[in-house]
Amino acid sequence: MWRSFWVAALLPLAITSTTSPVSPDSGNEWIDFVDSKLKNVASNLKDLHHSGVSPPKSITSSRCKIYPGDASWPSDEAWGTLNTLTDNRLLNRPDPQASVCYDGPLFNATKCDELAAVWSVSYSHYIDPIEMMSPVAQGMTCLPPNIFDSHNCTRGGFPAYVINATEPQHVQAGVNFARNTGVRLVVKNTGHDFLGKSGGKDALSIWTHHFKSIEFIEKFEDKVLGYNGPAFKNGVGVQAFEIYNAAHEKGHSVVGGEGETVGIMGGYIQGGGHSPLSSLYGTGADQVLSYEVVTAAGDLVTANSTSNTDLFWAMRGGGGSTFGVAISVTVKAHPDFPTTVSRFSFTSEKIGNETFWAGIRAYVDYFIPNAEAGTYSYFTLIPNVWTGIFTFNMSPFFAPNKTLEEATALLNPWFTRLDDLGITFDPNITHFGNFYDAWRNSFPLELVEKINATTGSRMFPRANFETAEKREELYSNLRQSSENNRVQVHFNMKVVDPANADNAVNSAWRDNILFAQQAVRWPLNGTAEETLKIRKEFQEGDMQRWRDISPGAGSYLAEADRMEPNFGQAFWGTKYPRLLELKSKLDPYDVFFATTSVGSERWKVESIDGLPNENGKLCRVE
Ligand SMILES: Cc1cc2nc3c(=O)[nH]c(=O)nc-3n(C[C@H](O)[C@H](O)[C@H](O)COP(=O)(O)OP(=O)(O)OC[C@H]3O[C@@H](n4cnc5c(N)ncnc54)[C@H](O)[C@@H]3O)c2cc1C
Ligand SMILES: *[C@@H]1O[C@H](CO)[C@@H](O)[C@H](O)[C@H]1NC(C)=O
Ligand SMILES: *[C@@H]1O[C@H](CO)[C@@H](O)[C@H](O)[C@H]1NC(C)=O
Ligand SMILES: *[C@@H]1O[C@H](CO)[C@@H](O)[C@H](O)[C@H]1NC(C)=O
Ligand SMILES: *[C@@H]1O[C@H](CO)[C@@H](O)[C@H](O)[C@H]1NC(C)=O
Ligand SMILES: *[C@@H]1O[C@H](CO)[C@@H](O)[C@H](O)[C@H]1NC(C)=O
Ligand SMILES: *[C@@H]1O[C@H](CO)[C@@H](O)[C@H](O)[C@H]1NC(C)=O
Ligand SMILES: *[C@@H]1O[C@H](CO)[C@@H](O)[C@H](O)[C@H]1NC(C)=O
Ligand SMILES: *[C@@H]1O[C@H](CO)[C@@H](O)[C@H](O)[C@H]1NC(C)=O
Ligand SMILES: *[C@@H]1O[C@H](CO)[C@@H](O)[C@H](O)[C@H]1NC(C)=O
Q1: Class of 339-574 per CATH?
Q2: Ligand 10, atom 2: nearest CA belongs to which residue?
Q3: Digit-coded pLDDT (tens) for 409-424
Q4: Which protein family is it in (predicted)?
Q5: Ligand 10 center from residue 613 Cα (angstroms)
Q6: 337: Cβ below 6 Å to ligand 7?
Q7: Are strands 288-295 and 324-332 parallel, antiparallel or unpaired?
């Protein structure tokens, strides 16, 4: 993969830092490490990798991050030095997967067909160093042509260089290099992020996917957090299917999402993360006992309840790619328990619109009691533009720690009303002996790589369900969205606030009863202006209606629209002012950036087509 840099004549170095490295946390260890690895390298190149250095003035005052073609873009020799320091794990412009579909040295029609057949499956993308599962955010520049014909395969929002990291030192080298050169830094784990926060044009990317260790700790005690029990210490590349399986083998469960390939220990946990177990234990971030983190200064530190407590607070809910790169995360392990699950669906086809919607209206009456009982339901409302038929899908109703009888008793009041309305829905209610089997058998593997849709979200609080009038208002807003052809995905759950959960998790989660998502779609053949207009109208129309009936509530940073207005309030609620302060303190040079992350208001990706995507330079907003 690595293409030699040493053929080029040695280019003059643009970066000359005279600041001596200061590294309060790790002392001289890192400097010694660099010196021993780079014995024969010029000292100004070593400076690129020193911790704690303030970037030169030319970088802190540059309007944009540093890009190819800029005088101060690092020389090939400088990139080669980074490669040495990362044990030859620096990938130079790894090819987009769909290059096999376009003219060029990699063209192979068979391979292209094979890729196209599995393109919407997440397994095809998290194994790739650059692929992000949101091509809309990537800029749509290289997809299999039968999915979207980009006419040519260009890099778009993909990074230029990728560190395939397996050691903390690889991450430290990347952070120091980016900070001291001004090159844009991104962090990619699995690439699931719907907003495309794992990519950036011509950036240096740190790929965390191969931090895969899982260690069971029988007894972890933290008096400040009030925790004394089992835990798992995980590499940040650990995904849902891996940690659930590992926990199951030890007779435990952990809090994670429903999607099987999501990077639970990466972006998910730092961003708050909701779970089929949130009604019992809260968010993913509420489970964190300790992080190992490479800071913006390049130091490897522990962030826990007694060390680097600001960082610990911010990284539990404040979002990924903002305060540091996590290397490992230790989380609470909970007891395993039996779980009851139910799946069913009905449509308006035979019963007509009014009866269908009366069935949905009846369901809204049970959102509070079902969430209170500790259950989680994941359901969709899907309109069909062509037939005018609506479909409701319960996929599934998930009742952890409930017997078949208990779960049935919770569903029965609504089922009786559906029966009275003449709605047939044929529920399958199954009891599983443990959480793992229930999860494994009940959730679909969702499709990824949507090319002409984006999703907005709202956390509807308890107040929206407390009176019959409020429930009626909420229901009619959901119906209106369906009639406007919005595909809706909903989670009826409560997100408990466990003891001592003083962290950066969106305050709006604690009041949540319905976490609601709706999608906007646009024609693939429209101009950028037309697409932008449709996306704006969605925000000003259907999304604004949802905001209007839930004043002060929030949206979830990992399942949201890049165009969510006032995202700081929406994604963090009352936590935002402190997060902004900590961002300035912990990352004063904005080494870390992701669109809609804390402090990202100071920057903007100037995309080539003017749409909200990563295909452009990252520049300061002035
Ligand atoms: C199919 C599917 C199902 C989902 N299900 C759920 C669910 O049930 N519950 C839920 O809450 N969410 C769910 N999500 C949303 C998911 O939580 C987000 O997409 C999340 O960002 C994924 O994190 P990742 O690390 O896998 O992805 P990436 O896209 O690789 O990373 C996401 C963000 O985190 C940053 N990041 C990743 N690792 C690190 C690290 N070690 N240090 C610093 N920054 C880092 C990245 O830079 C990026 O900004 C789902 C998404 C999909 C596509
Ligand atoms: C194209 O890809 C197919 C399938 O992976 C492979 O068998 C074949 O050898 C490739 N053809 C060329 C010319 O490389
Ligand atoms: C494809 O992209 C490359 C690189 O940007 C460019 O040189 C080339 O002209 C493009 N080809 C077509 C047919 O657009
Ligand atoms: C990344 O590193 C892992 C672990 O060493 C290795 O298995 C994988 O092949 C590497 N990927 C690439 C694209 O270099
Ligand atoms: C926090 O981390 C520090 C440094 O590793 C360690 O000394 C301390 O014991 C940890 N605190 C807790 C509560 O585990
Ligand atoms: C139901 O509503 C949809 C959308 O509003 C409409 O297209 C359809 O014709 C209606 N169906 C019936 C049977 O009235
Ligand atoms: C699970 O159910 C048992 C029996 O009802 C109860 O004692 C226990 O507290 C429950 N566990 C959780 C996490 O709610
Ligand atoms: C009900 O669901 C279970 C678990 O998913 C499945 O094994 C079973 O086949 C289903 N039963 C019917 C009748 O569909
Ligand atoms: C969006 O793309 C899909 C193909 O994935 C296509 O079927 C659909 O018609 C497109 N939607 C619009 C509104 O163009
Ligand atoms: C775009 O495609 C739609 C059908 O999906 C068609 O009705 C419309 O005319 C097309 N617009 C343009 C500009 O080609």
Answers
A1: alpha beta
A2: 525
A3: 999 999 999 999 999 9
A4: Belongs to the oxygen-dependent FAD-linked oxidoreductase family.
A5: 23
A6: yes
A7: antiparallel
